[in-house]
Design a protein that fits this description.
The complex is a heterodimer of chains A (259) and B (327).
Chain A lengths: L1 E5 L2 E3 L22 E3 L1 H16 L4 E8 L4 H10 L3 E6 L8 H13 L5 E5 L10 H8 L4 E11 L4 E8 L3 E8 L2 E5 L11 H9 L3 E4 L10 E7 L8 E2 L4 H14 L5
Parallel strand pairs in A: 1-4, 1-6, 4-5, 5-11, 6-10, 7-10
Antiparallel strand pairs in A: 2-3, 7-8, 8-9
Helix pairs in contact in A: 2-5, 3-4
Chain B lengths: L3 E5 L2 E2 L2 E2 L2 H15 L3 E7 L3 H12 L2 E6 L8 H15 L3 E5 L4 H12 L2 E6 L1 E5 L2 E8 L4 E7 L4 E5 L17 E5 L7 E8 L5 H5 L2 E5 L9 H8 L5 E5 L1 H5 L20 E5 L5 H7 L5 E5 L12 E4 L2 H16 L2
Parallel strand pairs in B: 1-4, 1-6, 4-5, 5-12, 6-11, 7-11, 14-15, 14-16, 16-17, 17-18
Antiparallel strand pairs in B: 2-3, 8-9, 9-10
Helix pairs in contact in B: 3-4, 6-9
The chains are: A alpha/beta (259), B alpha/beta (327).
Chain lengths: 259, 327
């Protein structure tokens, strides 16, 4: 079977962020460290597990974004994906999820994947929109936030369990081809292996420029960015570490939390 | 023609999920900016029963779509049924609880209807006489305001962000029922199961010392445990990323996909403060945050904050506490 995994590159979560002069995005330099979206690592790992269990399976990884995104596609190859696709966009700043989904759907349509996997959301935007939007654009059945996935080739279906609130799971059977978004914790994502990294460095990525064929519709406008307002006092304790420890213990006692 | 704001309710076996009232609270804020007709939609076998409760509590007009055989949520059913109904009602805004259910059917529905889709809406603001919507980005470090470029928008409402206070001073809304046939096609429901319910210690504790990925190593969890043991009726807990690492069982996870807690003290250790976590602990009576990152979003919801190395600070806290108790 043919599997496609959507991966996204993002800034390391600890990166200090500063709103830029336009007020509509943050300052990002070329040297700002980047990494693969954590949720996508789980999706890719799941694809690799399915490949181990299912004969004649190939795993493609796809990412839409500027030049820098090629490293996240290479990382996917390093983890074990067979083929990497980079949808090269000229996008800067906020990118509408409908645009990213349109780019991925356009590239995926002709390739006849049996299963498309995506992380449940990205860590930076936390929207959870691109995966299910791709599914709708390709008229595929879709299940989100899956914490268990089992392909049943004989029935041309996939059995999934969606993680829902209150510690419950919803069990579903989807006809293939389908799109499944993966919740974190479903597996333990592997680290890239040395042999795969060497292969990834030799291997050519398939680069598709989306600038010409670009489906450019955006449905929403990012008006401006701001820093969050405080909803509580947020008094920062000051002094040496020991001073702060003593102050905090005093606060606990004053509130009768400690005796 | 008067514009319409619709709410898609969340309910199961005749019980209304309280997030529904939060979505209605969001809709009422839109109504304040753009006076409109409010309609709440319920879907499924139990739509009338759920609809009556909502109409009584909020005064909202309710459209109950009775779907024989649809006892549980099914994304395919919701997309198909709502695509038909929304094309007819033409609401300018649809407020949907941003739960695992809302996040499952809404994005596809927006694509199908060619509508704008904004998820995790935390606030409604007025910009040039029109509603715009605020949501968090980058683990809560930045807030973005988004507005729709097209006339119709689906909004997924962040659980816990809107307070649903409804007084009894209204007459119950009218409940209109329609029966709709639907047959499952490419997605078949195979029921539900309990995977892990939250540890009862979380609900019982008056002090929760909670760890995030910022604890750095599994060994440091021992410090967190020892800090917790300073308090009576306490427990440790963790954020989702910490549980994903396998350092704590999911039964001790606090957040949108874990337990919702309201202890007397929530001591957040190395937790960044993403919306998904705040949804589970924002109602705690007193919140103390310890983090190395002075810009971590958790400080915005904390009563008291400590910017410091976690391992060092917790060690000092234990040491000072010992020193005091021996005086």
């Amino acid at each position: 079977m043919r599997i496609l995994v959507c991966v996204k590159q993002l800034l390391e979560p600890e990166t200090p962020l500063c709103i830029d002069e336009s007020g509509r995005w943050v300052n990002i330099s070329q040297t700002t460290p980047r990494q693969m979206n954590r949720f996508d690592e789980y999706a890719l790992e799941q694809a690799l597990v399915i490949r181990e269990q299912t004969p004649d399976t190939t795993v493609d990884a796809i990412s839409a974004g500027p030049e820098s995104c090629s490293t996240v596609v290479r990382r996917a190859l390093g983890m074990g994906a067979d083929h990497g696709i980079h949808l090269l966009t000229g996008d800067q700043g906020y990118v509408s999820p409908i645009r990213t989904a349109s780019c991925i759907a356009l590239a995926a349509r002709s390739r006849k994947y049996d299963l498309i996997l995506a992380g449940v959301m990205s860590e930076d935007m936390a929207q959870g929109l691109v995966g299910p939007m791709v599914a709708e654009m390709l008229s595929l059945p879709c299940a989100t936030s899956c914490i268990f996935v089992r392909v049943e080739l004989a029935k041309a279906s996939v059995y999934v369990e969606r993680e829902i609130e209150g510690g419950r799971r919803q069990a579903l059977e989807l006809d293939l081809p389908a799109l499944v978004s993966i919740q974190s914790g479903i597996n333990k994502p592997r680290y890239p292996s040395l042999s795969n990294i060497m292969r990834a460095n030799r291997q050519k990525l398939e680069v598709i420029s989306t600038v010409a064929a670009e489906p450019s519709r955006s449905c929403e406008d990012l008006l401006h960015l701001s820093y969050p307002r405080k909803t509580r006092a947020g008094v920062l304790l000051e002094g040496t570490r020991k001073d702060k420890a003593r102050q905090l213990l005093r606060v606990f006692r004053e509130r009768s939390l400690l005796h | 023609m008067e514009t319409t704001v619709a709410v898609v309710a969340e309910h199961r076996l005749g019980l209304v999920n309280p997030v529904t009232y939060e979505a209605i609270a969001c809709a009422l804020e839109i109504l304040r900016i753009r006076p409109s007709r409010l309609v709440t939609i319920t879907i499924g076998e139990d739509s009338e029963e759920a609809g009556r409760q909502i109409a009584a509590k909020t005064g909202s007009q309710v459209l109950a779509l009775k779907v024989p055989g649809l006892e549980e949520f099914n994304g395919d059913a919701y997309r198909t049924i709502l695509a038909g109904l929304l094309a007819e009602l033409e609401p300018a805004w649809v407020c949907i609880p941003g739960t695992s259910q809302g996040l499952d059917f809404s994005p596809g529905l927006a694509v199908r209807l060619g509508q704008c889709c904004i998820s995790n809406v935390e606030r409604v603001v007025e910009r040039d006489g029109e509603p715009a919507f605020a949501r968090s980005l980058f683990n809560g470090k930045i807030v973005a305001e988004l507005s729709s470029l097209i006339a119709k928008t689906l909004l997924m409402v962040q659980p816990g962000a809107f307070s649903a206070v409804f007084t009894g001073s209204h007459s119950p809304g009218v409940v209109e029922t329609r029966t709709i046939e639907w047959k499952s096609t490419h997605i078949r429901s195979l029921g539900f199961r309990i995977a892990q319910s939250a540890d009862s210690a979380l609900a019982e504790a008056s002090v929760i010392v909670s760890a995030g990925r910022g604890v750095g190593s599994k060994e440091n969890l021992d410090l967190v445990r020892r800090v917790a043991s300073l308090f009576s009726k306490s427990t440790i807990a963790g954020s989702r990323p910490l549980c994903d690492l396998g350092w704590l069982p999911y039964q001790l996870q606090v957040g949108q996909t874990g337990a919702t807690v309201t202890p007397d003290l929530y001591l957040a250790c190395g937790i960044s403060g993403a919306q998904q976590h705040l949804a589970g602990m924002g109602g705690s009576k007193f919140i103390v945050a310890v983090n190395t990152d002075p810009n971590a979003a958790i400080f915005n919801v904390a009563d008291v904050g400590v910017v410091d190395d976690l391992e060092g600070f917790l060690s000092d806290l234990l040491e000072e506490s010992n020193a005091c108790s021996h005086k």
